[in-house]
Amino acid sequence: MSVKIQKNEKGKYRKMESGEQVVLDAYLPSFLKKHPTVELIVGCDSHSFNNHTIYVTTLVFRYKQSGAHVVYNKEKVPRINDLFSRLWSEMERSASLALYLREDLGVDISQIDLDYNDDPKYASFKVRQAAMGYIESLGFNPKTKPTLLPAKGAANFLCR
Questions:
Q1: How high is the mean pLDDT of the chain?
Q2: Per-residue exposure over 18-31, b if at least 16 CB sit within 10 Å of its own CB, e if not
Q3: What span, in angstroms and rounded, lies between the C-alpha atoms of 119 and 131?
Q4: What is the Cα–Cα distance from 16 to 153, expressed in whole angstroms?
Q5: Domains of the chain (ranges, CATH numbers)
Q6: What is the mean pLDDT of residues 22-34?
Q7: Does residue 1 have a pLDDT over 50?
Q8: Do residues 40 and 60 touch, judged by C-beta distance below 8 A?
Q9: What's the rounded Cα separation, in Å, for the pair 89 and 32?
Q10: Would the CA dihedral through 61, 68, 112, 44 be positive or negative?
Q11: Which of 68, 13, 79, 18 is nearest to 44 (CA)?
Q12: From CA 105, how far away is CA 134, in angstroms rounded?
């Protein structure tokens, strides 16, 4: 299975702090011109509710000194009951955004945060190795728990 590069609603994202809508094609180059030393980190998280699942894909602009700026895309889909499929879709959304940024906008990504645990007692452990291998095969740097995952943390916050 390969990840298809998709622009979520024509690249429309929202700023985490204000909810203001931005189009990545225009916003990203402008932001990077003002802040050339930021690291870009991609992540996704999901939560299932009664009859739907929410996915939030985030792009974190991490400043070298401290702090971060976050833009995100929130997507509501029919409920996904299969945990493996839901977690794999998180990885696909992250990979899709990272590929779009690299291939279409020429921007390097520092890491992709994956919401998987390295402890076998957690269900997400079953997805971890396959997803990490896939992300690495695309030329990206995957990070999982217990490492600090700013993009995953922001996505988790925005899913609720």
A1: 88
A2: eeeebebeebbeeb
A3: 15
A4: 12
A5: 12-159 (3.30.420)
A6: 93
A7: no
A8: yes
A9: 28
A10: negative
A11: 13
A12: 22
User: Peptide bond preceding 146: is omega within 30 degrees of 0, i.e. cis?
Assistant: yes
Mark out the alpha helices in 12-149 (DSSP H runs).
Answer: 24-34, 83-99, 125-137
Q: Is 148 exposed, middle or buried (0-12, 13-18, 19+ CB in 10 A)?
A: exposed
Q: Within a 10 A sphere around the Cβ of 110, how many other Cβ atoms?
A: 15
Taking residues 18-35, report their average pLDDT: 92
Burial class for 39, CB neighbours closer than 10 Å (0-12, 13-18, 19+): middle
Q: What's the sign of the alpha-carbon dihedral 21, 90, 67, 64?
A: negative
Residue 124, pLDDT > 50, answer: yes
The Cα–Cα gap between 61 and 41 comes to: 7
* 50 phi, psi to nearest 5 deg: -50, -60
Strand partners, 86: none
